[in-house]
Amino acid sequence: RFLEQFKPECHFFNGTERVRFLDRYFYNQEEYVRFDSDVGEYRPVTELGRPEAEYFNSLKDFMEETRAAVDTYCRHNYGVAESFTVQRR
């Protein structure tokens, strides 16, 4: 039995002044490829991730969407959740 997971993460610094988006892929609890918005492309974490990184990076529309995730996913969701978290302090 094998398990594959992906985990999108948003890291916020000083509210939304600085945002970092990570899109991490795991196979059997081992990360094998990752997108880091600070880098701007997918990078292999293990040799298993090399073909996946090359494939993802070759998809122009997919990469545009992934690079935009800092705004479309992270900042958007920060705004939605802000009223439930940050403002309740």
From TrEMBL:
- Please state where this protein is localized: Membrane
GO terms in the biological process aspect are:
adaptive immune response; antigen processing and presentation of peptide or polysaccharide antigen via MHC class II
Q: How is this protein positioned relative to the membrane?
A: Single-pass type I membrane protein
Residues of the MHC class II beta chain N-terminal domain: 8-82
Q: What is its main location?
A: membrane
Give one Pfam family.
MHC_II_beta
Keywords carried by this UniProt record: Adaptive immunity, Disulfide bond, Glycoprotein, Immunity, Membrane, MHC II, Signal, Transmembrane, Transmembrane helix
Q: Which InterPro entries match?
A: MHC/Immunoglobulin, MHC_I/II-like_Ag-recog, MHC_II_a/b_N, MHC_II_b_N
Keyword Membrane in the entry? The reply is yes
Q: Does the keyword Transmembrane helix apply?
A: yes
Q: Which GO terms describe its cellular component?
A: MHC class II protein complex
PANTHER family hit by this protein:
HLA CLASS II HISTOCOMPATIBILITY ANTIGEN, DRB1 BETA CHAIN, MHC CLASS II-RELATED
- Any idea what this protein is called? MHC class II antigen
